[in-house]
Structures are given as structure tokens and as C-alpha cells.
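Quick one: structure for this chain?
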Amino acid sequence: MFEPHSGKQSARLIRIGVSACLLGSNVRFDGGHKRSRFITDSLAEHFVFTAFCPEVAIGMGTPRQPIRLTGDAQSPEAVGVKTPELNVTQPLRAYGKKIAGDIDGLSGFILKKDSPSCGMARVKVYNDKGMPERVGTGLFARELMHANPLLPVEEEGRLNDAELRENFINRVYVYARWKALIDAGLSKAGLISFHSAHKCLVMSHSNEMYRELGQMLSDLSRAPLADIADSYITRLMQTLRRPATRKRHTNVMQHLLGYLKNNLDSAHRADLGETIDSYRRGEFPLVVPIRLLQHHFSMHPHPYINEQVYLAPHPQALLLRNNL
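Got it. Here's what it folds into:
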């Protein structure tokens, strides 16, 4: 049985931040909530949540007058919908900066879409003619993402997309493993081991970045280790933001198949190869060839494959690869 490679995180659940209304808290302007079943019913089995509601945190209360963004999309104002004289721009920005600088314990964040405080992208910004344009970012979200560019962040609406959902959770686990590595004390051996474990995962996103990251670590004496590590994780997290494609997954699985060539007879090799090819043609979801590979490697362990994150990057119970 393959388990997710979680390093030190295996001893504790990973913590992620969540807009409080998505957890069922009655903190919205109308006194209601926007509970997400996926978050509260599925993710709750594997993560610990820290809830945030910027508007309540700055003292606006519940229920309250709704606010909206106005003016320049790059530097909008948050004002009352019914009473434009109500301006909470600075309090929201100040709260965002405060929280953004104090989230070391978080490995990801799920935001409420369309919110003038929490929206990650395409938030309505009203121009001087009172017409909305979907060009903004919530004030709290802007501060959070600006101060923490490596932090995996996603909106709950986009998590309805199977590809984006798997990509986000994948990045959360990678970032949590990285934080565990740093917490344990950065070392050359630790950095090399981390990279080695993520090789196949990186290949599923970009062959070019696979080579670039390897070159970055080819000479760890060329610069201070902390600087190399910072450059490495920055490039890695940037690469992982782009979802892996069916073609790249196929290439990685064919690469893994090569490690079984001396262990499987011709019939089993042909069956596995055809299953991978059926996935490439869109006939099977990703979980089918992955589970078959896991089965064969459990029967024929290989030290290099055993350390690879790719085959089990997150808990199977989340069913994230069942619809890819």
C-alpha cells in the first residue's frame, strides 16, 4: 500500500487557512454562510482549518452593510454599497498585512470567490460610472498573496474543477513537506533528498523545469545553501501552479514502467503498457494506471520508486485522481 509522502507532517495534520463563511460560520453580510461540503466533509478528514473573516475581524459585525470595490483595479477602495461614505479600505489592508505576516503554521489557503475582501481574482471593481468589471482582487487576499508568494492559494469555486482541485491539494502537500524540511534544519543532504523524492512529480509538470532544478542543485558550494534553497523552492512552486497534462503523466508512467521491465513477464508488461496508453487516449482516469503501478511496485519494490512522491502525493481517500 502506497501512502502519501508527508515527512514530518505525518505526525500532525496539515493546517490551512479558510474563509470562515466556507466552514459554515454565519459571518456574511446577510448573517448567513457559504458552507462548502467539499471543505467541511472531505478535506476536514485530512487538514486542520484556521478560519478568517476579515470584515468581521475589523469590527463590521454581522449582519452588516455589504461593501464593494471601486476605483482603480490595482489599488481599489472598499466602500459601502448603500453608503459610499463607509470606507474600510485601510482597516482591511492593515488586517491583511497583519495576518499575512503571521501564517507560518499554514501550508495553504482557501478563499471565498467574488468577495471584496477575500476574492483571489476576477472580483468586481466598479468604475467611476458605476459599472462593474471583473478585474480585481479582494483587499485581504491581495495582502496575503503578496506577502506569501509561495503559499498555495485557491478559491472555493475553482475547487469544483477536478484538475484545479488536485493541483491545489498537491501543492499544499509539497509546501508542507518543504516547511517540514526547513523546520528540521536545512542541510545539503536534506535538500538533495527532497529533490530526489519529487523528481517524477516535477516531470509530470515540466521536463524543462526538471532539468533546471537538477542543475540548481548540481553544485551546492557555489552559493550559501539558504539562497540556493530559496531559489529552488520558488521555481518549484511556480512550476507546480501549472496543472500536469495527460501527456506528461503518460510520459512519467512510461518512465516508471521501465523500472519494472526485469520483474514483469511480457503479458504483465503489455497489460500495464496498454493501461497507461488507454489513459493517454482518455479511456481511463489517472487513478487506474496509478493503482496498477502501485500494485506492481508493492510486489517488486525499488528503492528509487519507494521514495518518489508521484505515486502517492496525497491521500487516496480524497479521490483526487479519480476524475483526471
